[in-house]
Amino acid sequence: MSEEMKPCPQCSSPYGYDTGRDNIYACPECGHEWNPEEVVEEEGLVVKDANGNILKDGDSVIVLKNLPVKGAPGPVKAGTKVKNIRLTEGDHNIDCKIDGFGAMGLKSEFVRKA
Description:
three-stranded antiparallel β-sheet; SH3 type barrels; 11 strands; single chain; mainly beta
């Protein structure tokens, strides 16, 4: 077993340690396990949903709670499925079109991957 520690690719903790199983490292802070030889660096914008799943352009998501919309008679209801999202920089990091509301921005913390 190696005494060398490697940073966790998921949470960036510097305490990733060798588990002694086929070059598998584990993070004591988030519990993630990985093989350092197979880690692929993500390029560009990385957006995660409320459960920590990585979202990509074109994914479908489900709204987790009622979201009020300025100027609309009612909120976007929890359970609404939103198709074909686009990821953007900024606070509202998902651009989408929702039936009955039109184009809008959502925060990724209020959705989960469908």
